[in-house]
Write a structure and sequence with these properties.
Mean pLDDT of chain A: 98
Largest sheet of chain A: 5 strands, antiparallel
Number of domains of chain A: 1
Oligomer: homotrimer
CATH architecture of chain A: Sandwich
Strand order of the largest sheet of chain A: 1-8-3-5-6
Largest interface: A-B, 36 and 32 residues
Structural class of chain A: alpha+beta
Radius of gyration of chain A: 16 Å
Order of helices and strands of chain A: EEHEEHHHEEEE
CATH class of chain A: Mainly Beta
Chain lengths: 138, 138, 138
């Protein structure tokens, strides 16, 4: 059985983290699939989906990490060749990735106590983001 | 067909790598699902699941990489706000992620010659880790 | 329903990016599975599968990122212990990973406008790479 759901988020970019666990829980509860997997997939190239403990300190620490490995003020060939300003956003998104698979049981994601499914938007400006939930199982 | 298996590992933290391929092979062999996918998922936020060639040199090289991008002695907002000591562990875990999907055929993971499925525990102290194997297919 | 497909690529290594989206589209179109997921999996330990906007600037920017976090001329225990020269390749591949799951609808991957599925080969010399497409659904 396959059940496809769509979620939309308005983001501020610049490393903003959005906790979508409540939306994920609600869509899974509403679905006829009770066991299997859910693929959480975002359709952009400057944004990622991952799991973290969601608290303000770690949101800042992720920005610091990304500033260290892909500084905003470094020179990016993407920006030069395309007259753009978000080379750092693309580069940072590569380290997180747009796809995450979580096992599902009894209509709920099998997350640990502190695990939250989050969207991280690295773009240089506000964006509207589409997230696909592909729920598969029985 | 869905088959859920649970594995538990006692880890030392600090970048310890545990090769769980033999356990994965055994659970898949034991399962009635012979073809499809297996999602390997760990339920913590300072630990990751990935694939690597498992040899002592690369275990050290991963620690060096992580020390470079998320130094243990840097200042972490997570530690300050929560009076904690594992901000670097959370940050490092973000770069690996807790979920991995491997194709399955004839009751075995379709791994390359040198590929091993590993758990990497980045926490600052020993932990007990729960790994879920969600086997799906026919 | 499960449909397994195999793709082979001859690569140059050293961070070469190969866009395999056209091959993915063709295999999905040819498959009897019209909705579900496709797992894209590469069977090496110095290579990754991810999604990016595929343009020459970002290919260079990814090389720069990887050179910053895992320099080619750093000392790697892998190289010392195994008399090898691709410790940086293994280390870089850890940050991308060998597995990616993309939702499928109407026989096509549900990719965003700029998203391309790519193989990135970090090895120090040319390689032949095997990619498995595990298509599951109905």
């Amino acid at each position: 059985m396959i059940d496809t759901r769509h979620l939309t988020y308005e983001t501020q970019g610049d490393g903003q983290v959005i906790d979508l666990t409540a939306d994920l829980n609600r869509e899974l509860e509403d679905s006829d699939v009770s066991g299997g997997t859910v693929t959480i997939f975002v359709t952009g190239t400057t944004v990622g989906i991952t799991i973290m403990e969601y608290e303000p300190g770690l949101v800042e620490d992720m920005k610091t990490l990304m500033g260290r490995v892909a500084p905003r003020d470094a020179s990016y060939r993407h920006d030069i060749l395309n007259n753009d300003d978000n080379g750092h956003s693309h580069t940072r998104a590569l380290l997180i990735g747009p796809s995450l698979v979580v096992p599902v049981a009894d209509g709920s994601p099998m997350l640990g106590t502190w695990q939250r499914v989050v969207l991280v938007d690295f773009d240089s400006h506000p964006r509207s983001r589409n997230v696909i939930l592909q729920i598969m199982g029985e």
